């Protein structure tokens, strides 16, 4: 996928630059889901839920930082749908 950048980048590198924010947002989504699962009354792992929620926010911040840097350098941001979470959390 070619974009109009003001700097020369190898195609493989450019693909990785576009892929990384999407991976960070996917990780954030999974962590967010995990956090709220652990915060359920029947699971009740409050401290772990808070830790995973913090991780979710960090992943989102990573994505935002990467996209900001890409904008500053004249690149174009290509976001994909956030990875769908399949299945449900089971409490056994």
TrEMBL record:
<protein>
    <recommendedName>
        <fullName>Ferritin</fullName>
    </recommendedName>
</protein>
<dbReference type="InterPro" id="IPR009040">
    <property type="entry name" value="Ferritin-like_diiron"/>
</dbReference>
<comment type="subunit">
    <text>Oligomer of 24 subunits. There are two types of subunits: L (light) chain and H (heavy) chain. The major chain can be light or heavy, depending on the species and tissue type. The functional molecule forms a roughly spherical shell with a diameter of 12 nm and contains a central cavity into which the insoluble mineral iron core is deposited. Interacts with NCOA4; NCOA4 promotes targeting of the iron-binding ferritin complex to autolysosomes following starvation or iron depletion.</text>
</comment>
<dbReference type="GO" id="GO:0005776">
    <property type="term" value="C:autophagosome"/>
</dbReference>
<comment type="similarity">
    <text>Belongs to the ferritin family.</text>
</comment>
<dbReference type="GO" id="GO:0006826">
    <property type="term" value="P:iron ion transport"/>
</dbReference>
<dbReference type="InterPro" id="IPR008331">
    <property type="entry name" value="Ferritin_DPS_dom"/>
</dbReference>
<dbReference type="GO" id="GO:0008199">
    <property type="term" value="F:ferric iron binding"/>
</dbReference>
<dbReference type="Pfam" id="PF00210">
    <property type="entry name" value="Ferritin"/>
</dbReference>
<dbReference type="InterPro" id="IPR001519">
    <property type="entry name" value="Ferritin"/>
</dbReference>
<keyword id="KW-0409">Iron storage</keyword>
<comment type="function">
    <text>Stores iron in a soluble, non-toxic, readily available form. Important for iron homeostasis. Iron is taken up in the ferrous form and deposited as ferric hydroxides after oxidation.</text>
</comment>
<dbReference type="GO" id="GO:0006879">
    <property type="term" value="P:intracellular iron ion homeostasis"/>
</dbReference>
<feature type="binding site">
    <location>
        <position position="24"/>
    </location>
    <ligand>
        <name>Fe cation</name>
    </ligand>
</feature>
<feature type="binding site">
    <location>
        <position position="62"/>
    </location>
    <ligand>
        <name>Fe cation</name>
    </ligand>
</feature>
<dbReference type="GO" id="GO:0005764">
    <property type="term" value="C:lysosome"/>
</dbReference>
<dbReference type="InterPro" id="IPR009078">
    <property type="entry name" value="Ferritin-like_SF"/>
</dbReference>
<dbReference type="GO" id="GO:0004322">
    <property type="term" value="F:ferroxidase activity"/>
</dbReference>
<feature type="domain" description="Ferritin-like diiron">
    <location>
        <begin position="7"/>
        <end position="92"/>
    </location>
</feature>
<keyword id="KW-0479">Metal-binding</keyword>
<dbReference type="InterPro" id="IPR012347">
    <property type="entry name" value="Ferritin-like"/>
</dbReference>
<keyword id="KW-0408">Iron</keyword>
<comment type="function">
    <text>Stores iron in a soluble, non-toxic, readily available form. Important for iron homeostasis. Has ferroxidase activity. Iron is taken up in the ferrous form and deposited as ferric hydroxides after oxidation. Also plays a role in delivery of iron to cells. Mediates iron uptake in capsule cells of the developing kidney. Delivery to lysosomes is mediated by the cargo receptor NCOA4 for autophagic degradation and release of iron.</text>
</comment>
<keyword id="KW-0458">Lysosome</keyword>
<feature type="binding site">
    <location>
        <position position="59"/>
    </location>
    <ligand>
        <name>Fe cation</name>
    </ligand>
</feature>
């Amino acid at each position: 996928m070619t974009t109009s950048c003001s700097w020369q980048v190898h195609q493989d590198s450019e693909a990785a630059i576009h892929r990384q924010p999407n991976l960070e947002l996917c990780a954030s989504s999974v962590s967010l889901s995990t956090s709220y699962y652990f915060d359920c009354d029947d699971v009740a792992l409050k401290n772990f839920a808070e830790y995973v929620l913090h991780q979710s926010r960090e992943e989102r911040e990573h994505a935002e930082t990467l996209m900001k840097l890409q904008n500053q350098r004249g690149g174009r941001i290509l976001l994909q749908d956030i990875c769908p979470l399949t299945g449900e959390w089971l409490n056994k």
